[in-house]
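Hi,

Apologies if this is the wrong queue. I'm a grad student, and the batch job for Helix-turn-helix transcriptional regulator from Streptomyces abikoensis produced an output file that my downstream script rejects. I'm not sure whether the problem is my script or the file. Here is the sequence I used:
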Amino acid sequence: MKAAVDRADDGESISRLLRAWRGRVDARTVRELRGIFPRPGRRLSQAHVARMTGVSEGWYRALEAGRRQDFSERFLLRVAEALRLSEAETLTLFLAVSGRRPPEAGRDRTDLPRGVQTLLHQQVTYPAYLSDGAWNVVAANALMGEWFPWVLRPRPNLMRWALLEPEAREQMLDWEDACARVYLAMLRVAANSNPGNAELRALVQEILDSDADCRRIWAEEHDVVEHRDGHDFRLRLPYHGHAEVRVTSHVLLPIQRTDLRFVFITPADGWAGVPR
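Support response: The file is valid. Your script probably expects a header line. Output copied below for reference.
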């Protein structure tokens, strides 16, 4: 009978990868190890990596052995730095160990991939926009600005507009069931998925502090919604002469910036035009 393959020895194991990444670093070139005794040779040991990342050797050994622990984001970033990991290797480490992507540290909110910007602005048939993890609208095409002029205001935020602005309750029909309950359920998922996001926590608190209807819905509902892809909703906008239209939202994640949402809005049920 053929022996089962040990996951620690296969080519996909994070244990195997960590050992390989550690093995390619010459300990003699590591500044943090200069002057320690005994003087390190070429091989970077687990003890060396533990010293470089500020943890015990046993804690780092648990990571390299593939044992599940509560490894913090900060610790994993220190490991990536110590082992001189590339962006793709750091992504692999985070996904394998925590199931999360590494933080988008230091990235300018306006630093958008050129292809994504081009696709956004070449979309001239339907409204489209990009939002970040806290639903700040970071870019929008011209038609989005015509349908929803609020995106042209300083620091536009979808949740803040939809849940707090009086005009949203007039323009989004069946506001409580089709809008507020869905958006609050999305905020609930996001807040629990990324508890360290201070901006997101502040947004949730601002909405609950500012509106009694949102507080009531938040307290009485326990629904969770990850995104609004494929959801239909009814609008009555000045752009359409206040006639009712039904549309569908579509949510995509740009591969270059998965911290962003690419959202575009199309007619529902084959509706082919807009009343003006």
